[in-house]
Amino acid sequence: MSLPKIVISMGDPSGVGPEIIMKTLSDPIVYKFCLPIVVGDAKRLTLAGRIVSSSLGIHVIHDIKSIEYDFKNVQCIDLDLIPEDHPFGVISPISGEAAYRYIEKATDIVMKREADAICTAPLNKAALHAASHKYPGHTELLAHLTHTSEVSMMLVTGKLRVIHVTTHIGLLDAINRIEPKLVERVISRGYDVLIKTGIKKPKIGVCAINPHAGENGLFGYGEEENKIIPAIKLCSARGWNVCGPFPADTLFFLAGRGDYDMVVAMYHDQGHGPVKVLGIEAGVNITLGLPIIRTSVDHGTAFDIAGQGTVNERSLITALRQATDLVAQNSV
C-alpha cells in the first residue's frame, strides 16, 4: 500500500512554521509513514533551513503529479508571496495574506482528492485580520473553505482527548451559545472518531460550565440542568457511555489517569488549559466535521522565538502521524 500524501500548509511566514517544517522534514522517520508536500514559499523554507542547519534542499513543484521524492529535498508548491527580506517575529498583513493563500491552496488540493489530508503550521489571527480575512482561526477558515456549516475542535496529547463545544468566542458568548442539541452534536462527532480509532465502547466525560457543576443550584443559573444534561440523556439513550456533567478540575484528573477516552469541554480555555499543561510540544489539533482530514500543531506562531532555530518540532511530527492514522481509519 502506498503511503498517504499529506499537504502541509506553511502557516504565517513570520512565525515558526517554516522552521518546524524544515526540522520535521529533516527527520527520516517522517518518510516511513507519509509523503509530505508543503504549500508555502520556497525562499522562506530555504532561509528556515539555514536557520535550523538543515541539509535539505527545496524542490519546487507546480502540481502533485510532479513530485519526485528523493528524501534530500522538500517538495514545495511555491506560491512565491514573501519578499526575501521579510522579517520574522512581527504581525504583517503580507504574512496574513500568505497564510490564507497557503491554506486555501492546500484545501483545494485535498478537496480534489489529489492528496489525502492537510496538516497545518500555525497562523497568526491578528495578521490574518490585518489582511482582511476575518476568521478567528484555522478551524473557522477551513469550515468556510469547505462550505461546512459546523465543525468541532479536538485536542489530543498522549492519551487525553478533548473535544470543544465552543472555541474562539468570549466566555459570555460561549455560555449563551451552548444548548442541548449543540452539545449532543459535538459528543456525536467525538464518539464517531473514537469508534473509528478502534475504541469499541468509549467512555466519555462531559464538563460542567459552573464550579462544582453548579453545586445543586448554588452556582450559576441552572446551565447544567438546562444546557448539558438533556444532551447527555440523548446520547445515553443510544447506549453510549456518556457521563456528567462533572466539575472540570475533577474530570481532567480522572481523564489524565485514563478513566475516560474523551472529555467534552464547554469552552476554549476549559479544554485548552489542561492539554497544554500536559503536553503542548506533542499536542495535536484535529478538526472534526470537515469533508477532509485536517490536523495541526497545538501551538501558535511563537513570534518571540521565530527565526532563532530553537523551536521544537515534536508537535508537527505528531500531527503528521495523526493525519496518517486518520487517513487509514477512514479507508477502512
Description:
The chain has helices spanning 17-24, 42-51, 93-111, 125-130, 138-145, 171-177, 180-196, 223-236, 248-256, 268-279, 314-330; strands at 5-9, 35-40, 57-61, 73-78, 117-120, 152-157, 160-164, 203-207, 241-246, 262-265, 284-288, 294-297. It is an alpha/beta fold and 332 residues long. Helix 1 (17-24) packs across helix 2 and helix 7 (180-196) packs across helix 8 (223-236). The longest helix is centred in the first third of the chain and has 19 residues, at 93-111.
Summarize the structure.
The protein has 332 residues and is of the alpha/beta class. It has helices at 17-24, 42-51, 93-111, 125-130, 138-145, 171-177, 180-196, 223-236, 248-256, 268-279, 314-330, and strands spanning 5-9, 35-40, 57-61, 73-78, 117-120, 152-157, 160-164, 203-207, 241-246, 262-265, 284-288, 294-297. The protein contains 11 helices and 12 strands.
Radius of gyration (Å): 20 Å
- Average per-residue pLDDT, rounded, comes to 92
Q: Order of strands across the widest beta sheet? A: 3-4-2-1-5-12-11-6-7-10-8-9
Order of helices and strands: EHEHEEHEHHEEHHEHEHEHEEH
| Overall geometric form | globular
Low-pLDDT stretches are none
Q: Please give the number of β-strands.
A: 12
The number of helical runs is 11
Report the structural category.
alpha/beta
Largest sheet descriptor: 12 strands, mixed
Beta-strand content bin: 15-25%
Q: End-to-end distance, in Å?
A: 13 Å
Proportion of helical residues: 25-40%
